[in-house]
Hints:
Elements: E1 31-36, E2 40-47, E3 50-54, E4 64-65, E5 67-70, E6 75-77, H1 78-87, E7 92-94, H2 107-115, E8 121-123, E9 130-135, E10 138-140, H3 142-161, E11 167-172, H4 178-190, E12 194-200, H5 201-211, E13 222-229, E14 234-246, E15 250-263, H6 268-286, H7 299-316, E16 321-330, E17 333-340, H8 341-347, H9 349-353, H10 356-366, E18 375-379, H11 386-396, H12 410-422, E19 432-436, E20 441-450, E21 456-466, E22 471-472, E23 474-480, E24 488-493, H13 501-507, E25 511-518, H14 520-526, E26 531-541, E27 547-561, H15 569-584, H16 615-623, H17 630-635, H18 649-673, E28 689-704, H19 712-752, H20 756-760, H21 764-784, H22 790-839, H23 850-876, H24 887-909, H25 920-924, E29 964-968, E30 971-974, E31 977-980, E32 987-988, E33 994-997, E34 1000-1002, E35 1014-1016, E36 1018-1022
Parallel strand pairs: 1-11, 11-12, 13-18, 15-19
Antiparallel strand pairs: 1-2, 2-3, 2-4, 5-6, 5-7, 8-9, 9-10, 13-14, 14-15, 16-17, 19-22, 20-21, 20-24, 23-26, 24-25, 25-28, 26-27, 27-28, 29-36, 30-31, 31-32, 33-36, 34-35
Amino acid sequence: GIKKVNRPCPPCGSSGRTRRPPRPLPDTLAVMSVDLGSESMKVAIVKPGVPMEIVLNKESRRKTPVTVALKENERFFGDGAASVAIKNPKVALRYFRDLLGKRADNPHVALYRRRFPEHELAADPRRQTVLFRLTPQMQFSPEEVLGMVLNYSRSLAEEFAEQPIKDAVITVPAFFNQAERRAVLQAARMADLKVLQLINANTATALSYGVFRRKDINATAQNVMFYDMGAGSTVCTVVTYQTVKTKEAGTQPQLQIRGVGFDRTLGGLEMELRLREHLAGLFNEQRRAQGAPDVRGNPRAMAKLLREANRLKTILSANADHTAQIEGLMDDVDFKAKVTRAELEDLCADLFERVPGPVRQALGSAEMSLDEIEQVILVGGATRVPKVQEALLKAVGKEELGKNINADEAAAMGAVYQAAALSKAFKVKPFGVRDATLFPIQVEFSREVEEESGGRSLKHNRRLLFSRMGPYPQRKVITFNRYSHDFRFSVNYGDLGFLGPDDLRAFGSPNLTTVKLKGVGEAFRKHPGYESKGIKAHFNLDESGVLSLDRVESVFETTVEEKPEEESTLTSKGRGRQEDRGGRRGRAPEANRRVRPPPQEEEEGPAEGSRVEPPKQAERGAQGEQAETPKEAEKRPPPPEPAADKAPEGEKAAEEEAGEEKEAREKGEGAAEGGAQAPEEEPPKAKALKRQKLVEEITAELVVLDLPDPSDDELARSLRRLQDLTLRDLEKQEREKAANSLEAFIFETQDKLYQSEYQEVSTEEQREEISVRLRATSAWLEDEGFGASTKDLKEKLAELRKLCRGLFLRVDERRKWPERLAALDGLLNHSSIFLKGARMIPEVDQIFTEVELNTLERVIDETGAWKNATLAEQARLAPAEKPVLLSKDIEARMAALDREVQYLLNKAKFAKPRPRAKDRNATETEPPRNASAPGPEAAPPTGEPAPAARTRVPIPAAPLPSPVPVYVRSVVRGPRGVRFGSGERPYLPHGGLAVEKGGETDNKRNRSTGIEGIRINRVVDIYAPVIK
C-alpha cells in the first residue's frame, strides 16, 4: 500500500513518532560477499569476532576458478573442475559470465563459440537464450550454472564461518544492463541465496579503498581513477571522495561515481588466447615434417595450451623470456618452445592500443580533465602486464601508477563491508555510496492531438526517466494528465550514442518493457465529480540498479466542507470550565479562537539520496505540445537536489502552517485581553473548505521486451534441479566418507594386532578371530565396495567395531589406570588431612557440624574401601578378561569425594567468627601496637616494665606437626588461599587450616580490598605447610 507520513499529536505538535523497537536479529549472524569474475571469484565473510576475512577454499587458496565440470553422476567445482577441463574440456564450463542475459544470436555468443568450440550451444525454445548442451538429456542455462557456482561459494563460506549463511552481496560489472542484472538475481534465487545488493565491482573497489583511508577524506573533493583490467573486460572509473553532512550520522565520508568507461572484450583472456594460438603454431611447425594433424582440432591439447599460455603470461610479466613446456601434448608427443616478452607484446599490440579507450570514456562521462585526477590506481590481475602499465601511464600522463591496493581482493572486501552495513546483525561506521546509472532510461508514449486543419493525429513523446550518470538508488514519478481511458506506454533505454558499434550490437534490445494500464476509464466513471490530477506511475531504480514499476494510480481531488470534530461529554465540560476561567481572567472564549484543522495525510517523500522531478514539471513534460528529446533532456541542467540536512517540502509546509497558527493564536490572545469591550456574540463565519484527495489503484500489465524472464514454474524447476544435484553430491561425499572410514579402520586394526600393548591384553584366538574378519571385509570392499551403498558400508564398519570393542576397552583402561589411581590417592590423602585438621579446631571456634564431618569421613572410608576391593578383584582377573576397574568409576568416586570437601571449604570461606566476651587480663597482656617486633618476644622500651606473657588457647592433641603461631596484622582471602599480612606474607593453600586466636576489629575500610571490618592484630595457628 501507500505509505503515509505521521500526524503531529495535538497536545504538543511533535511528530508523534515513537521509538522503533530493536530490529530482530536474523537466524544467522554471518554475511558473505562474492566477487564474481569471468575467470575466478573471491569470497569474503563477516561474522561476530571475524571482521572482513577472505574465505579459503578446500585447497587453502584465496581465489577459486569459476569453473563447473558436469559429468553423468558427479560435479566438480573450482580447482577440481579446472583439472577436469584439461582431461575432458567438453564437460567443463568456464567463462560463462559473458553469456548471462543474452540471446543466442548475440555477437558475444558467437565470440564464445570461436573461443571454445568444444562446447555445444543451443537456443532456448521460449526465451531464445543460450543453453549448454552436454548430452541430449542434460542441458543447462548460464543462469543455472551460475546458481551452482553461487551455491558452492556459500558452502565454502559456511564451512569457513562454521554457521549457515543466507545473505550475500554479489559484484557485477558496471556495464551490465537490466537483462544481465536480472539474470544474476535469478541465479541467486536458484541457489536459494538472499541477495542484499548487486554492487558494481568498481564501486566495491572504491568503497574498499575509502574505508581503509577514512581519516584522509575531508570536505575537499578528491578525485581518484581506478583502472580495472581483469580476465574478460576492462573498466575505468572516476570516483570523488569527500565528507558530507547527513541528519542521521552527521558528517561522514562519501564516494560518488562520476564517470565510467569500459571495454567488454579487453582483458587477460584475450592475451592468453592469442598466446595459445602462437604456441599451437609452433607445435604444428615442429610436426609438419611428420604430416601430423593440426593441434587446433584436438580440444584436450588446446586446453593444455591455454593453461600453459596462462602460466607464460604470468611469468613473462616479470621475466624477459621463458620456455613453454608441455609433456604429452598430443599423441604422446612433448612440446617445448622458447617465448619472449617481445613476442607476446607483438601478438597483443592492438590490444595495448585499446588501453587508453576506457580512460577517455570515463573522463568524458565525468566531464573532467586529467589534471583534476589526483591518482590512478591499478586493479585486476591483467594490469600486472608491463606493457599495459606502460600504455596506461602514457595515457594518463602521471609520474607513476598507484599500486597501494590489493588488486585481486579489493572488490570482495568492499562488497563484504557493504553486506555488513546492510545486514541487521552488524553496526558499521557509515560510508555513503552514490553509484551512477550507466545507461539512460526513458518513457515513451503516444497520444492524439488536434491539428490546425481540425484533424487528429498521434504524437509520439519521450520523457527521460533516469539520466546517464545519474545517482541511484532513487524513485521517479511520471504523471499522465491527458488520458481518461486505458492506454499503454513503453520503457526503453535512452540515447546510447556513446557506445561503439560493437558494444551497441552486443548490448541487446534497446526496448525494456511495455506497460498496459487497465481500469483508467472505470476510475473516471466512479468519480464523476472529482478533479483529475493525472495518472501517476511510480518507478524505482533500487540498490542493485534494477528498474521496477512499483505501482500506478489515478489521483482525484475535490473540495469539501470541513466538519468540526465532535467533542465528548468530558471534553465539552472541561472546555466549559476553561472558558469560565478564561472569561474571568479577561480572555476570549475558546469558541472565538481560530481552530487549526488537522493536517491531511500526505504521501511519503522519496528515499534519501533520490531526486524526484517536481509535480508541475512532470505535468508540463507529459502534456507539452513539443516533446522533449533525450538529447535536450541531457543538455538541460538537472534540477537542484535538496541537501541532506534540508527539511523536505512536507516538513516545510508543516512548519509554515504551524507559524500561521502561532500568529493567529497570538492575535486571538491579544483580542481576548480586551474582552470587556468585545461584543459577546460575533457574526457567523463562513464554513471552511478543504481539498480532499482520492487515490485509485490502476492495474498495470508488464510485457518484458529485452529478455523474457523465466516463469515461476521454470524457476521452481531449476531450483529443484539444482537441489537434487546438491543432494546427490552430498550423498556421494557421505558414501566416500563411509568407504574411507571402513578402509582406514581395517588397516589401523590390522597394525594394532601386532603391537605389544594389544597382544598383552588378548589371546591368540581373539586376535585370529579379529584378523579373519578384517581380511574378509577388505576382500569384500575390493570386490563389491565400489557398488555398495552408504548403508552397507556403515553396517560393515559397525560390525568390525563391535567385534573389536572389548580389545580396545582393555587397552584404553590400562592406559588410564596410572593417572586415575594417582589422582584418587592424592584426593584421599588431602581429604584425610583436611578432616583431621577440622576435628582439631576448638569447640568455641568450630564452624563445621558433627554431621558434616561424619559425612566426609564416611565418604573417605567408602572410597578407600572400594579402591582396595576393586584393585584386589582386578588382580585376580587375567589380562584378556573384561576389567572391573574402570576409569569412569574412578572418576565418579573422585567427584563424590571432591563434592563433600568443596562443600566444607566453601562453608569455611564465608563463615563469620563467633562473638566472645573480652578478657581484661588477656587484653592487658597484649603487646603495644607500636611495638618494634610483632612477635611475643618483642623487647619493651627502655625504662618500662616487661609485659606479661601472651595468653594462649590450648591446642588439642593431634598426630600433626606442631602448629606455627604467626602474629599478623590482617587476613585476606584470595584465589590462591588465605594471605596473612605479616612481614613474610605467607600463603595458606586451600585445604589447609588456620585457627584465629583473638584480635580486634578495625571498622575502617581497607583501601586495597574495599572490605569493612577487617580483623587485625591476630595470632593465627597454621596447621599446614606455608607456601611463601
